[in-house]
Amino acid sequence: MRRLSTLGTLALCGILPTTARFLAQEKSTAELQLRIASSLGEKYRAVPAAIWLDPTPATTVASFEPHGHYMLLQRNRTFLPHLQVIPVGGVVAFPNRDPFFHNVFSLFDGKRFNLGLYEAGSSRSVTFTRAGVSYIFCNIHPEMSAVIITLNTPLDAIADARDMLALRRVPPGDYRLHVWIESVPQSFLDRLTRTLRLASGTVDLGTVQAPIAPIGANSHTNMYGRPYALDSESPYSDLP
């Protein structure tokens, strides 16, 4: 019985210092909070948005694995998830789980690619080799869209269903804050970029009133730069 008690004491001696160090680290980091609101009136959906911090050369952050595997699922003529943040070097699979063909492409800033036409049950992958924002579309279904943000930093957060962004466990230091909000002009987003010096505790950055376009207000061309053909008899796009 005495031996078990001794082992228990030794175990606690090993656990408590570790717990204390963890709590100390938690208290020494910062948490950023930011809210998104529309300056164009009431909206009826959560707005896809993200923030990230680029550390200055003098600021040290924990290293992170630059490579990884991710997935952007195609189901019910929808990309899931709609917004994804990945590190540079990340590989994204685009499996087709619809009973018809898709053609995934991105011809904008970020990663440019065209996966071509591929059938139900198959999948193709893309390696995102540089930082940037990639807008993803299907050349057959104009209603399908997604965004992949590729970063060189592990410090990022995506807005929740209440349009709230919370970036936790940020080491003290100097950073460059970036904000991305879907449908908002880049010129507006550039004005939100700022330098922050963070210590510990919660930093509330307030609310960004952004010109968020209503649902369905944004349109895009197909991969050839032309409007989508309204061909309901297409053998590639009809549901069985």
What do these coordinates show?
The chain has a five-stranded mixed sheet with strand order 6-12-11-8-9, with no helix packed on it. It is built from two helices and 17 strands. It has a single domain, classed as Immunoglobulin-like, CATH 2.60.40.420. It has helices spanning 2-27, 186-192, and strands spanning 30-38, 49-55, 69-71, 73-75, 78-80, 83-87, 91-95, 102-106, 113-118, 123-127, 132-138, 145-151, 156-158, 164-170, 173-181, 194-198, 201-210. It is globular, with a radius of gyration of 22 Å. Mean pLDDT is 83; it is low at 1-26. With 240 residues, the protein is mainly beta. It starts with a helix and ends in a 30-residue tail after the last strand.
Strand content: 35-45%
- The CATH topology is Immunoglobulin-like
Structural class: mainly beta
The number of strands is: 17
The CATH superfamily title? Cupredoxins -  blue copper proteins
Please report the first level of CATH classification, the CATH class: Mainly Beta
Q: How many helical stretches?
A: 2
- Helix-strand pattern, N to C? HEEEEEEEEEEEEEEEHEE
Specify the biggest β-sheet. Answer: 5 strands, mixed
CATH architecture: Sandwich
Widest beta sheet: strand line-up: 6-12-11-8-9
End-to-end CA span? 71 Å
The 3D shape can be described as globular
Uncertain ranges: 1-26
The portion of residues assigned to helices is 10-25%
